[in-house]
Amino acid sequence: MFRQPKAVWAVAFACVISFMGIGFVDPILPAIGEQMHASHAQVELLFTSYLLVTAVAMLGTGWVSSRIGGKRTLILGLILIVVFAALAGFSPTIGAMVGFRAGWGLGNALFIATSLAVIVGSATGGVRGAIAIYEAAMGVGIAVGPLLGGLLGSIGWEWPFFGVSVLMLIGLVGTSVFVTNAPTTTHKLSLSAPLKALRHKGLLMLSLVALLYNWAFFTVLAYAPLQMGMSSAVLLGLVFFGWGILVAIFAVFVAPRLERRFGLVPVLVAAFAFLTVDMAVAAIWADIPAVLIVTVIVSGVCSGLNNTLVTQAVMEVAPVERPVASASYSFVRFLGGGLAPFVAGIVGTALSVHVPFWIAVGALLIAIVLLLASRKLITAGVAAAEAADEEVLPIAAGDSPAEPVLLLHDEPTDQGVATGTIRTQ
């Protein structure tokens, strides 16, 4: 896993910084609301504008990268993040900051969708090894981001934004130096490709599961900090540092072991059930900061498992090129992430601080039902991918020649294994 081309580590480092950027904002949410005289709903727009723009822009990432290549797409995304993160730090009003976060989201979409394709296409060790590297980068970024954001936020709310801009500039330099440019596919993708890909039942079901999970995930990440009653950005950063450590450990080390022993769907169902109970506890005692802090930290266990296993399942089950699968999946899941904070801010103010967490509980219960309803399809798709020994990956960003792609049909055979054909790109 660790013997990888320099290009993989350069992109992985930029991924760490990108995911740090999500957690950077958490410790300063109360300070932004107080100093800019913004309501909870207005503060939550910092996440909503960022994630909704990310979601919609995902539909065009494959179109862009298939024409200008993976490296140029990464660089374009990184430039946008560097510029808009810095501008967010200079925001005179909450409205301006929301707008700059939207621009940041555009860069984030170009970077995230392409970085996963680049790592999968360039890494040695197959799909699971590549995803492990990606999830490790996510885990480190999510863990360190809130702590560093809290430390910088203790100086002033502007500094976490400046910190992201500087660190992403370093990632930009590394990507420019070590990553070679190549098309993410051997043919140009249409703008409609990600939406058309959702006609495949396996990809659609997993994407909907991810949407519902992201609703709960961003309720924890974006709404919970406003209810903890912490005036110290450092202390709030430490809470999410503990959460992020659990995300990293369970994503990189625990999830693969559990999946090998018990199977993908049973582990996902158990993780979703555990997170449902955790969110129910948060919903009941949402007005008690100590309980909320514990439930947020504990939720990192489920987030680590789900982040790795759902992404792995999408990459193995989706019967389309990986850049298309990544764009389709990310488009749907970030819709949930984008809407959840804004809805939480509104209903939490209008009704009760308990309601956003109960909505998260409902979303997770629906996700469990979808997982159980599609378990045979998901299991069959993963089994077919493993049977084909899918070490051969569609070219994403490396220098390798065109490689075979496993195409999985939506319905399993009577023997419970999806049929497939091999074609060369």
From TrEMBL:
GO molecular function: transmembrane transporter activity
CDD domains with a match to the protein in the record: MFS_YfmO_like
Keyword Membrane: yes
Intracellular or extracellular location(s): Cell membrane
InterPro entries named in the record: MFS (IPR011701), MFS_dom (IPR020846), MFS_trans_sf (IPR036259), Tet-R_TetA/multi-R_MdtG-like (IPR001958), YfmO-like (IPR053200)
Membrane topology: Multi-pass membrane protein
Chief place where the protein resides: membrane
Residue ranges crossing the lipid bilayer per the database entry: 7-25, 45-64, 76-98, 104-124, 136-155, 161-182, 203-226, 232-255, 262-285, 291-310, 331-351, 357-373
Domain Major facilitator superfamily (MFS) profile as annotated: residue spans: 7-379
Keyword Transmembrane attached: yes
Alphabetized UniProt keyword annotations: Membrane, Transmembrane, Transmembrane helix
UniProt protein name: MFS transporter
Biological source species: Microbacterium protaetiae
